[in-house]
Sequence to fold (1436 residues):
Amino acid sequence: MSMMKAAVFIEPGRIELVDKPIPPVGPNDALVRITTTTICGTDVHILKGEYPVAKGLTIGHEPVGIIEKLGSNVQGYHEGQRVIAGAICPSFSSYASQDGYSSQDGGCSCHGYKPMGGWRFGNSIDGTQAEYVLVPDAQGNLAPVPDGLTDEQVLMCPDIMSTGFAGAEAANIKIGDVVAVFAQGPIGLCATAGAKLRGASTIIVVDGVEQRLQIARQMGADITLNFNQVDVVEEILHLTGGRGVDAAIEALGLQSTFESALRVLKPGGTLSSLGVYSTDLVIPLAAFHAGLGDHKIITSLCPGGKERMRRLINVVASGRVDFGALVTHQYALDDIVAAYELFAHQRDGVLKVAIKPFA
Amino acid sequence: MSMMKAAVFIEPGRIELVDKPIPPVGPNDALVRITTTTICGTDVHILKGEYPVAKGLTIGHEPVGIIEKLGSNVQGYHEGQRVIAGAICPSFSSYASQDGYSSQDGGCSCHGYKPMGGWRFGNSIDGTQAEYVLVPDAQGNLAPVPDGLTDEQVLMCPDIMSTGFAGAEAANIKIGDVVAVFAQGPIGLCATAGAKLRGASTIIVVDGVEQRLQIARQMGADITLNFNQVDVVEEILHLTGGRGVDAAIEALGLQSTFESALRVLKPGGTLSSLGVYSTDLVIPLAAFHAGLGDHKIITSLCPGGKERMRRLINVVASGRVDFGALVTHQYALDDIVAAYELFAHQRDGVLKVAIKPFA
Amino acid sequence: MSMMKAAVFIEPGRIELVDKPIPPVGPNDALVRITTTTICGTDVHILKGEYPVAKGLTIGHEPVGIIEKLGSNVQGYHEGQRVIAGAICPSFSSYASQDGYSSQDGGCSCHGYKPMGGWRFGNSIDGTQAEYVLVPDAQGNLAPVPDGLTDEQVLMCPDIMSTGFAGAEAANIKIGDVVAVFAQGPIGLCATAGAKLRGASTIIVVDGVEQRLQIARQMGADITLNFNQVDVVEEILHLTGGRGVDAAIEALGLQSTFESALRVLKPGGTLSSLGVYSTDLVIPLAAFHAGLGDHKIITSLCPGGKERMRRLINVVASGRVDFGALVTHQYALDDIVAAYELFAHQRDGVLKVAIKPFA
Amino acid sequence: MSMMKAAVFIEPGRIELVDKPIPPVGPNDALVRITTTTICGTDVHILKGEYPVAKGLTIGHEPVGIIEKLGSNVQGYHEGQRVIAGAICPSFSSYASQDGYSSQDGGCSCHGYKPMGGWRFGNSIDGTQAEYVLVPDAQGNLAPVPDGLTDEQVLMCPDIMSTGFAGAEAANIKIGDVVAVFAQGPIGLCATAGAKLRGASTIIVVDGVEQRLQIARQMGADITLNFNQVDVVEEILHLTGGRGVDAAIEALGLQSTFESALRVLKPGGTLSSLGVYSTDLVIPLAAFHAGLGDHKIITSLCPGGKERMRRLINVVASGRVDFGALVTHQYALDDIVAAYELFAHQRDGVLKVAIKPFA
Fold:
């Protein structure tokens, strides 16, 4: 049991399956045997070299699995227990975490903040696209999975549900709100579901792929707009009688979606941004009402921790939302290069792929 | 009593004193005899033609005066009573006001939102740089002034205190926060005072004029930085041990101050923007942590209404803050063109001028 | 058109239909011809003399109707337009309203607060159980009804939806919360629907009437408990593994429901109270953790105003919630005494009755 | 170095100094050599047997000291470093902590909540009235003290500043608020200081001891009322023109102070409760407006953790508040029985005593 397979970053354009030692388990760690994981859009950025990580690092940050071994200080769990952990695995001891920003957890030996510091799997430590993953600060990060739920049902909790719902939460939605969501990829679809869960009564979603707009309706969208067919800014302003939306959620990471989100926003409204941008952003003066529109622009990074995961699992268990339609494909870990190929090119209507190391 | 003097916008570059009829008083109005008013930076934008208003409009939005005549529906006040009204005079009946955004009050015959719609004096209706001003929706906008306070003591309430404090309020300051305020003109100085009132324990202020930095210390600044002498971004990061500030308040309206505010912000921090911008704004990718820094950018327009004014007057009456140092000059209304000349060119250490129509 | 029928309070135990003059319309008023109204539990308190009102006052505070005549200052509406108004009709000019507490609107000639002051219909002015009602401060209180909705569909907006949803809003529900709602009368049922709209994933409701528990399931309840069959406190603690609920909503107004709500609450949880109490309340020391449990007890009075009504109408129009099952009976205004008889004694499975003055 | 002196609970009425082994240091612990500690009102409850703890437990929860030995997993600190820790020492890994309620931290092997579970020193583990204390979960709880500050200056941070400020924070104070604080013992005085730090412009404090009312003025009180001389409810309603206060802070733990706090509260206001009660509480119906007054009753338990301590130390370092007047007496640890005698009987104008194990 001393070696395992893991998908690692070799160089820009190459993620490959290699053999690696199974890591030793420190007192605050847990070793988890991965039963299901998945590929995220961020992983594709890593593959392309657009987001730099260390060569040889195991990629992936969405674990479902079984506790193989617990660190000596970790209490209240047992080996053999089925768990997930968030994509973001904070220490929860840091100044940032105690201040309410655990995703920006800066560890312990500095001032306590590190941008995106809570994101460790597949970023600063080995990730989940492997047979085993070492979960740091396991006491705060392991979330038990109830027996009645399948791996696929909880596979979205570690990242896209947490991120998408965070977008809706940051949008400060009130009952009766009109909300627009720009882009309906996996995270945008979760933001749509989140907006419905928070009480939005009119949810307008925008994408260019009809299949995604169809799924959006299942997630709670009331109105779907295909940007290939209409001027979405004009249409949303028309639909709201010129008033604009109470909140706009950006779920892609482009200047165009960011800007459209601002242009459809009522004075006093909130632009909740989830996208990972790769360029400077421009705020157009007129849409910003010269800074006098009581606008709020809020960015969110996926909340982690066992309490967040517990709540998301509760939502799945309640049947409030069914993300089953999001897992469109399944691969063995051995075939992960093919899975990346499919996912990176958005072929075959792929939304999320389930990766099974031991299937 | 049928005619009055008023400073009106003639054309770009010209504001002049003219004779105008004293307006008739509708059932929900109040006519106020101005005893003291002042000039705002926004008025200078109007003078220069940078912010368009109708030719012939009376300028000014900061009234202190005496109720001359009350509309038939206005109750609980009496003629001869000393009052102020906010620079922003909402209807309070609109959808926007009831939704919590009275500064974006859209009146009544539309969907209920109008960007900056609550700002009427010297913008969409005749303003306060005159012998008399008609206060609309007087029931919601007239705030009595206690006997013990001078005109000068409450002159800052209608606009700069309300705006500056709103910048501190929107910054979501917590006890023990480190806050940076960029620019220490009248509004920036009020933001500094507001940050102290909310419990910031380290307030770092930035300006290029030593006199203003001196006054900032009286307002609550702990550390003053002159941008002519230091690289303020580098210095603030140094002062915070690389952590950044909890909140940064922008009080000028330039790309450079906006950008510096973002660059010194901790992950999870709030950029509270008060400036009136005149160009598109650029959000630099790195400072924005690609949209993953849990940052918040919040803009605020001066809150108005009698309750807001009552609270600000309470602060003045409590002696918590003394804005006496801000009124550096006094002019008769007859000399308002000279006052504009001084104020627009920031001559003679001017901060705010008191304009006295009947002195 | 000078006289109308109205149900007035005669003396404890007697509400009767009498003829009254149709009131004159002041500049800020609107006269509304009632097409549908209903009876509230509070009206029964009035009938019984438990809540004192002036003899001769017209009762009722839930109007659906047609604008018959508009005051001269009311803009953006037209006569013949179909509207509702909230049970609570604030002035929106008062200090209390501007401070965020419009239900406690104190009018204008005092310090600005009056407990329950926003509740005027059938309390301090003539109410809605009549052929016509005069809506004060109509500019802020008239909410247009879209053509596609029936009177019955919007009849719950003025009071029970607004109250029940307010209970859920005040409970500070987060996605994934476990919420208990005590009592499933009309307001409790709306609180259940509100809890679902805010993202609660496990909603446990308590009542003693099976029919109401059945309807609660349609409104979003996941678990229903009949207090005649189980010890509800014990059962809820069991269901939550001893943790308690994140929020408990009290929707009746008794010591027993208030106390049970506290006993099932987690440390840090919120007790959101909607009931109208008629006795002092006791907070048990142990359930209150001696004041060290980070508990919150929050009371809410039905929010009013056209913006609130607009949002509730949006929820109805979206199909998110269907309150159709709540209107169990219909009466002509002529038969209102019989309607009171039925409603006060909770006969025949009554939940809400539709009263039709012109049917 | 294997034995130390410690003040332990023997039986009701007896706390005595005994010899105990210095505890071993686990991987996540730190051993701190106490240089200064103090006695809290809660300790007197323990002494009297009113709050039960295990016989032989070391009492005290307010540590200032030097790191003697660090656990193997604790990073970013060094032995010899001067630190404090909060009276409340959460694990920060628990569900409760991640949910925002670290004072109710339930540890790890249960559902995650335990009422007051974060309070461990002198409650569930050995406390600080000893030569050494073992700090659990040291990574999240040790807060470095800057060189320029004396022990006495930071001695109030672990408990009374954190508690008193929490009372002001929970009161949701806005700039310009009128706030009443009931009782001006050490925690009430800190609540007064906290109310000022949050922007209250009129702070009315109530006590029966003139010396405390004097100190209250230094802490920020604008108006002091001696309940032996005036009817404080009547007087506060008079001072506010019948409106009531925006927030009332209860800082004692009696029915009478709780009730008075409610009676002076405006509709919509917040009663922030800090007291440790020893009886059931009664909410009077009229003062509660039958549950329709939009009232909020919020209890708070002292927030802990290194981030909270860091912020409080910042406040001390800024000079915003000077709690120097609160330390009225000093004792060697050897004389702690005498210190309890003085403190429990409130003799000689005592507010807080500094206890020095090594002086």
